[in-house]
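call fold(seq) -> C-alpha cells
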Amino acid sequence: MARKEMISKQMILDAAFQMAREEGLANITARKLAERAGCSTQPIFRTYQNMDLLIDEVYERAIQFFQDYYSLYPRLSSTPFSDLGMAYIAFAREEKELFRILFVPEKRKKGLYELLNGKTENVKTELQAAAAAGCPDPGALFMKMWIFIHGAASMSLTGDYDLSDQETREMLESAYHSFL
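ret:
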C-alpha cells in the first residue's frame, strides 16, 4: 500500500504565501519553505517542478488577496478614487511585503492598471463614477490621482507618512476636486 501524502499542495502554498507576507518573495527558498511547512524539500519538488512555478502561484494569490482586501474596504466617500486611494494606502501600511511584491517589484509581472483593474474592475468603476460626476476626461484625472495615491502609499510603506485616515480622505477628496 502506498504511503499517505501528509503535505498537500495547499499546505505548501499556504506556507509560501505566509512567508511572502512576512519576508517577501526573495526569501522563499525550498529549504526555508520546507522548514515552515514541517516537511522535507521532497514534497515541494514533487508538487512544483521548480520554485519559479511556486512563486508564480504565490504572486497570483497575492493579487487575489489585494482584490479581496479592496472589495472589503469600507466605502465612506462619494468622491471618485477616494476609497480606492484609501484602500491602496492602507494596504501599503498593513501589508508591506505584499505591497512591495505587487506594486514596487524589481521585475513587474503585471502592470499597475492590470493589477488594480483585476476581476472586480476597480479602476473602471471609478472612471465611470468620475464621468457620471461630470468629469470631462476621467482617464487623465485618474492618472493625476494615481500619481498622488501611489506617492502617499509609497511614503506609507517607508514610514514617512503619518496622516490619519480622516486627513488622508480629506486630502484625496481635495486632490480630486483640484485636479478636476
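The radius of gyration is 19 Å.
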